[in-house]
Write a structure and sequence with these properties.
Blueprint: H1 18-38, E1 46-50, E2 54-55, E3 60-62, E4 65-67, E5 70-71, E6 77-81, E7 92-93, E8 100-102, H2 107-117, E9 125-128, E10 131-134
Antiparallel strand pairs: 1-6, 2-5, 3-4, 7-8, 9-10
Length: 145
């Protein structure tokens, strides 16, 4: 969601704007969760919504169009199902949403949490090209379960 000449405003209601994309995401995720629950599949299905990066806390301009750059210091993720407790919040950003203020989660810890939810044992090792290594070195976020 950068914005730009070919994309228009990221804050607009066009098909590449947040005014269109966020309500569609909300509807899709809530519909999926309701459907999984109705079919008694939510306990055995892990739903994860996360981007590869956060976004800069300040809006800047791309050729006159407002947008936000990649920002690796702070991001959000949503997890549901597979034993994840609903409504649990883990961590918080500072008042400008720039940096983690409380309970930072590393990518390794996030990965370990996904494996834990999927029932993959922490001691799982993989062999690739004759080299054996740990699947993940992080620790699951236990308070989510």
């Amino acid at each position: 969601m950068h914005g730009g000449p070919a994309l228009g405003s990221m804050f607009g209601n066009g098909t590449l704007g947040l005014g269109w994309a966020l309500p569609c995401l909300d509807e899709a995720v809530s519909g999926l969760l309701e459907d999984l629950e109705a079919r008694s599949l939510l306990d055995s299905t892990l739903v994860v919504v996360v981007g590869e990066f956060g976004r800069t806390p300040k809006i800047d301009s791309h050729e006159g169009y407002p947008g936000r750059e990649y920002w690796p210091h702070c991001f959000s993720a949503l997890m549901a199902g597979a034993g994840v407790c609903g409504g649990t919040v883990c961590g918080a950003s500072d008042k400008s949403d720039a940096y983690v203020h409380d309970r930072p989660v590393s990518p390794d810890d996030f990965g370990a949490t996904l494996f834990h939810a999927l029932g993959v044992p922490a001691e799982t090792r993989l062999e690739t090209g004759g080299v054996t290594r740990s699947l993940n070195t992080g620790q699951p976020i236990r308070e989510l379960f």
